Amino acid sequence: MDFYIKEDGVRTSFEYGQLDISGDELHGYRPYQLMVASVAGCSIGVYRKILDKQKINYEDIKVTADVKRNSEEANRIESIHLHFVIKGYRLNQDKLLKNLEISSKNCSMVQSVVNSIKVEETLECIELSK
Q: How far apart (Å, rounded) are the C-alpha atoms in residues 31 and 81?
């Protein structure tokens, strides 16, 4: 990966497109946003693969990330709470929770920060009716 300095931040390009990074949200994604997006995106992606592989039906999955930062230590990320909300019919919450634990152990981004950022995952099931 190559990164280039620009007036208000840094720029890099990938096959999907250009990425601008800046401490100022007017000029790009903030580094902490990218870190949280990496952890959340990887986590939901691995979880989805596990559910699909097990042929578990669901209508929708949403993840909300709550981030705690320490302003006294360079504003470092101390914890990320990922709250998964799954909507579907006849959901088995125990099985979904077990699969969430498995996905956390297999998510490369969660495992990359395991000794420096506390990542907590919770699950909420919303039962849909026909």
A: 18
Please check whether residue 39 is in contact with residue 45, taking contact to mean a CB–CB distance below 8 angstroms: no
Of all helices (H) and strands (E), which one includes residue 65? strand 60-70
Round to whole Å and give the CA distance between 34 and 17.
Answer: 15
Does the pTM exceed 0.85? yes
User: What's at 127, amino acid-wise?
Assistant: E
Q: What confidence tens digit (pLDDT) does each residue in 21-59 have?
A: 999 889 999 999 999 999 999 999 999 999 999 999 999
Closest to 108 (Cα-Cα) out of 53, 41, 26: 41
Q: What's the Cα-to-Cα distance from 116 to each of 11, 34, 71, 109, 122, rounded to whole Å?
A: 26, 16, 16, 12, 20
Task: Flag residues of the chain having pLDDT under 70.
Answer: none
